[in-house]
TrEMBL record:
Molecular-function annotations in GO: 6-carboxytetrahydropterin synthase activity; metal ion binding
Cofactor requirement: Zn(2+)
UniProt keyword Isomerase, yes or no: no
InterPro entries, per database record: 6-PTP_synth/QueD, 6-PTP_synth/QueD_sf
Homology family: Belongs to the PTPS family. QueD subfamily.
Pathway: Purine metabolism; 7-cyano-7-deazaguanine biosynthesis
UniProt catalytic activity: 7,8-dihydroneopterin 3'-triphosphate + H2O = 6-carboxy-5,6,7,8-tetrahydropterin + triphosphate + acetaldehyde + 2 H(+)
Domain of life: Bacteria
Source organism per UniProt: Anaerohalosphaera lusitana
Protein name: 6-carboxy-5,6,7,8-tetrahydropterin synthase
Enzyme Commission number, as recorded: 4.1.2.50
Keywords, comma-separated and alphabetical: Lyase, Metal-binding, Zinc
Lyase listed as a keyword: yes
Amino acid sequence: MYAITIEQNFVATHAVTMPDGQQEKPHHHDWRVRVAVSSHDLDQNNMAIDFIDLKKKLTSILRPISNKILEQLTDFPDSGATAELVAKYIHDSLTQLLPSRVHLDYTEVMEEHNCWARYRPDN
């Protein structure tokens, strides 16, 4: 099994509704995204997937949410774009762009320093 991991950053604003019903004031983060993919086989260039190609795919997903208020986008609920939901959104979006032989193992999102959320499907 071969594994590739990349990281990329984006800036976005969110305001999460807390368990007690209070809503945070909108605030931005310099989000960090880490994705890990794997493949049993290498392609004709002896790569699981080209780093540059994977970064382009991730960039295409982050571009529409960069510098936006996440709750104003249809992909996130009004109650808040938590780090967990952002990780799942990126994971689901990136899965659709990968070659069939490449598996997206997990997506991690760092909302603020040392605060990570990971999404990994149960399969």
